[in-house]
């Protein structure tokens, strides 16, 4: 299940970061106009992408235990994604995606605790 969460991060963040960098259609509506805040968010997303790639590579090519690192990443993601529902409301397009991704990450976290 850990691989699923890490791949999900990669699959979602790669095109999202490209779209943010290109100010693609719909990005301004969902994330606001290009601004320092949006660029900081892109940096955070990029960090999550890089960490997800590194952890996935470790899972595939190494025998090291990445569970503590992956668990920390996923907990942070779940917390920030769930709080978007409280600060933006359920009608916001980013919130619904965040909640769906959070649900996957929660299942992964529960599976890691077993």
Overview of this protein structure:
The protein is 83% helix and 0% strand. It has helices spanning 2-22, 27-31, 36-61, 67-88, 93-113. Helix 1 packs antiparallel against helix 3 and helix 4 runs antiparallel to helix 5.
Number of strands: 0
What is the H-and-E element order?
Answer: HHHHH
Structural class per helix/strand content? mainly alpha
| Main beta sheet strand tally, sense and closure | none
Low-confidence stretches: none
Kindly report the average pLDDT value.
97
Q: Approximately how much beta-strand content do the residues carry?
A: under 5%
Helix content: over 70%
Q: Termini separation (Å)? A: 12 Å
H/I helix tally? 5
How would the global form be characterised?
A: globular
What is the gyration radius calculated from CA atoms?
15 Å
Structural topology:
Layout: H1 2-22, H2 27-31, H3 36-61, H4 67-88, H5 93-113
Helix pairs in contact: 1-3, 1-5, 4-5
Quick recap:
It contains five helices and no strands. With 114 residues, the chain is an all-alpha fold.
Identify the notable features of this structure and list them briefly.
single chain, 114 residues, mainly alpha, 5 helices
